[in-house]
TrEMBL record:
InterPro entries xref list: NagB/RpiA_transferase-like (IPR037171), Ribose5P_isomerase_typA_subgr (IPR020672), Ribose5P_isomerase_type_A (IPR004788)
Function: Catalyzes the reversible conversion of ribose-5-phosphate to ribulose 5-phosphate.
Name assigned to this protein: Ribose-5-phosphate isomerase A
Oligomer status and interactors: Homodimer.
Gene: rpiA
Active site, per annotation: E103
Entry-linked NCBIfam families: PRK00702.1, rpiA
Organism (species): Zoogloea oryzae
EC numbers: 5.3.1.6
GO molecular function, one term: isomerase activity
Amino acid sequence: MTQDELKQQAALRALDYIVEGSIVGVGTGSTANFFIDGLATMKDRIAGAVASSEASAKRLAGHGIRLFDLNDVDQMPVYVDGADEIDASLAMIKGGGGALTREKIVAAVADKFICICDATKRVECLGRFPLPVEVIPMARAQVARQLAALGGRPVLREGFVTDNGNIIIDVHGLQIADPAAFETTVDGIVGVVTNGLFARRGADVLLLATAGGVVTYE
Ligand code: 5RP
């Protein structure tokens, strides 16, 4: 099975978690795109969706799924999204697509974070995937120095601007022993908007697509 087929399997399994009549929080990326396409098959049974990026909003709207502004939503049973890495405690690195800030905000409103991944994303220790950090542009050099002092190798994501008008610094060479503590440390650097560690609030459910089928962790 190809990696895309595995992503699709995990994504379609997440449809089992959708609460009829509810507003669904929707992530960003290729796995989330498979989820959006699956959600379209049951669009008449949901109220609509909140998107975590302009790209996902466009795809949802293309399927005729009603979009809600997060500020008009006070309750959302589930948020469904992929990840770049996920560990045994269901802490994640996200933001490979650069949507980490809105992803973290939408996920914060949801009761449950359902993570959909192919098996390559499961790791023992987070950090092999470079940690994305969204930064206010004028703070680029200052933040890069602080990230280097924490032991990483900061690399500017060239030619990329987030949906919020900021830049992304990808931090290479990390081995993150305590993801929640490191998330707090990086968020504490002046000029950082968000970092791609989702550890203080990790996933509640992982749907991991393997060659043998989709395995559920919770
Ligand atoms: C985007 C993300 C994505 O969830 C992450 O990059 C995984 O992407 P994909 O499903 O394409 O492998 O965090 O900001």
